[in-house]
Fold:
Amino acid sequence: MISTTGLVGVAAGVPYVAHRPAGALQRAPLVVVLHLMDPPRSEVAMAAALPLAGVPAWRAYLGPARRPGTPRSSCGLAARTPS
Structure:
């Protein structure tokens, strides 16, 4: 989906926000940004905190992976209990 925040979607259970490079670049590198457990905790918040707008590359901000049926705020590792 294309929104005002960029290309937004979920791939393999991982939410993302992606921004195209400025200009009409035929080939551009990809910069992938992962959030950590501390703020910013979502792909949208990370994109706002670290826009990288001047970088001539695709910018993909990845959120926490989600298992089907888990709330968005849950982190797969934190939600598991040791067996």
Remarks:
- The first strand starts at residue 2 and ends at 3.
- Residues 2-70 form one domain.
- Helices lie at 43-49, 76-79.
